């Protein structure tokens, strides 16, 4: 059985981003930048007032001074008047600082009498002025390639004058459930029928992470049905199959793939849940074969499929599984040769530094209700010794 870290590295080294496309700024949130974004203009483009008030010369802005108001300037309407000694211009937030002025006296510090403004407090040079390019200058790099765009990034790109952004194409990922016992929710259920929870769960995870998912028809436990569905891989960026990759007489996924040319890289992982995991390529399309039990399918999707998807999206992905520290909330037994991923709840620790992770006593890989109640997976190395409650551990948070 292959080590988890080795299997993860071997999957990722076989993948590359799907390519690029140009999308409107309004549709770019959540996408991954394929090219850096540079500012088309400075922000602000000119020096502007940060407050409502009066633009004047700092040398005139003394307590008790009386200045003559020579113009009024709202935002978007620059003044053609140059401020002279003893003068000021009424202006509003966002208005361009007039020529000759080097400070803004906020309106709270002014008593206005007709065309004159009496200062009740002094103002310093540069006060309440947002200088041209204070945020960024023209041609500054605003966003690096490889960044997944959030709402703040969209705002920054808009401030830099961008209407379109070049992003990585959203990967098209096929989800293929296999098995004669698998039925769709809502279909008439035979006594031994199992609703297809794993496909919907994995598809939801990958959609959340940025994929365009295609739910393929369920493949039945015969070579014709399996090979027919696997041939759909040619139109996809990645195919994820669920079930049928173990060693039973009706586990025909690997033979069916071999018949149509799969180049298998590995099969079987030293992890629990998720031992019967397969990876290979059918032509140029990577295929990850997940276990049929829904919890195992979800855990393997978090550990292997999600980083594969991120690589296809152009995100930087490390080969090492990213974990964080926690404190065990209960005793755990010694581990065997497989790396364990124990479903656990999280709670604040008394010290508040790291959370307390308490694994469930039941870890059956078909129990979805326990998975739903979990917030994290406690990761235990192969042959890890027994540990007491209160000792440190490593966790992966569940999405």
The percent range for strand residues is 25-35%
Oligomerization status of the protein chains? single chain
Q: What is the domain tally?
A: 4
Main sheet properties = 6 strands, mixed
Q: From the coordinates shown, what is the CATH architecture of the largest domain?
A: 3-Layer(aba) Sandwich
CATH class of the largest domain, named Alpha Beta
Helix content: 10-25%
Q: What is CATH's topology name of the largest domain? A: Molybdenum Cofactor Biosythetic Enzyme, Chain A
CATH superfamily grouping of the largest domain: MoaB/Mog-like domain
Write down how many β-strands occur, each being a DSSP E stretch of 2 or more residues.
Answer: 26
Q: Enumerate the spans where pLDDT stays under 50 for 5 or more consecutive residues.
A: none
The strand line-up of the biggest sheet is 7-4-6-5-9-8
Summarize model confidence as the mean pLDDT: 94
Structural class: alpha/beta
Q: How far apart lie the N and C ends?
A: 27 Å
Radius of gyration: 31 Å
Tally of alpha and pi helices? 7
* Net shape: elongated
């Amino acid at each position: 059985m292959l080590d988890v870290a080795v299997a993860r590295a071997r999957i990722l080294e076989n993948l590359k981003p799907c390519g690029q496309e140009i999308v409107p700024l309004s549709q770019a949130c959540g996408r991954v930048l394929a090219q850096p974004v540079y500012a088309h203009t400075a922000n602000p483009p000119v020096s502007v007032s940060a407050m409502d008030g009066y633009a004047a010369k700092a040398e005139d802005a003394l307590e008790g001074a009386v200045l003559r108001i020579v113009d009024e300037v709202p935002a978007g309407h620059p003044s053609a008047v140059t401020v002279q000694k003893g003068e000021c211009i009424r202006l509003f937030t966002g208005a361009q600082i007039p020529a000759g002025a080097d400070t803004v006296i906020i309106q709270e510090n002014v008593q206005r009498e007709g065309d004159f403004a009496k200062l009740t407090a002094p103002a310093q040079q540069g006060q309440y002025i947002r200088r041209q390019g204070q945020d960024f200058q023209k041609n500054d790099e605003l966003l690096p390639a490889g960044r997944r765009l959030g709402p703040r990034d969209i705002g920054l790109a808009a401030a830099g004058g961008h209407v379109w952004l070049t992003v990585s194409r959203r990967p098209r990922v096929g989800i293929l459930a296999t098995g004669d016992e698998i039925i769709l929710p809502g279909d008439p259920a035979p006594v031994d029928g199992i609703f297809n929870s794993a496909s919907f769960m994995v598809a939801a995870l990958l959609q959340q992470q940025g994929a365009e998912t295609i739910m393929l028809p369920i493949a039945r436990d015969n070579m014709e049905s399996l090979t027919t569905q696997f041939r759909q891989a040619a139109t996809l960026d990645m195919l994820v199959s669920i079930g049928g990759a173990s060693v039973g007489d009706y586990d025909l996924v690997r033979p069916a793939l071999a018949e149509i040319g799969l180049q298998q890289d590995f099969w079987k992982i030293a992890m629990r849940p998720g031992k019967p995991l397969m990876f290979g390529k059918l032509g140029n399309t990577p295929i990850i074969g997940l276990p049929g039990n829904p919890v195992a399918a979800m855990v393997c999707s978090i550990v292997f499929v999600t980083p594969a998807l991120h690589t296809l999206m152009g995100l930087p992905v490390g080969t090492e599984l990213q974990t964080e520290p926690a404190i065990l909330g209960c005793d755990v037994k010694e581990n065997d040769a497989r790396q364990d991923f124990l479903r656990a709840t999280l709670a604040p620790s008394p010290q508040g530094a790291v959370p307390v992770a308490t694994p469930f006593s039941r870890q059956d890989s078909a129990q979805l209700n326990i998975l739903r109640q979990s917030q994290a997976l406690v990761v235990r190395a192969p042959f890890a010794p027994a540990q007491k409650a209160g000792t440190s551990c490593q966790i992966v948070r569940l999405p």
